[in-house]
Amino acid sequence: MAIPAFGLGTFRLKDDVVISSVITALELGYRAIDTAQIYDNEAAVGQAIAESGVPRHELYITTKIWIENLSKDKLIPSLKESLQKLRTDYVDLTLIHWPSPNDEVSVEEFMQALLEAKKTRADA
């Protein structure tokens, strides 16, 4: 799937506002939806996607891993939680929201955890 030229960002949108915004965007033809763990709206975004009736394969979903979840022992569980909230078995793009402040988690550690997450997905 090609990355859609336009997408909906959901920063600061919560509850009914994010649900109606995502549903309206999908009705208007948007197919890219951007969210993040720190936005605390992944579950509402997932609900909106489910209610929209748009097939998952038509969507390009992005989420971002928050700094508290960058360590090797937290990254994969946090991604699994994001997938559960979004009501999907995959996201099309996973971003590191911000690098770890003060290098508390090394780039090598979270990149290795991302690689492991990718392998886990490939094996599923």
Automatic annotation (TrEMBL):
This is 2,5-diketo-D-gluconic acid reductase B. It is an enzyme of class 1 (oxidoreductase). Coiled coil: none annotated. Belongs to the aldo/keto reductase family. It comes from the Bacteria. Residues 8-119 form the NADP-dependent oxidoreductase domain. It comes from Escherichia coli. InterPro entries: AKR (IPR020471), Aldo/ket_reductase_CS (IPR018170), NAD(P)_OxRdtase_dom_sf (IPR036812), NADP_OxRdtase_dom (IPR023210).
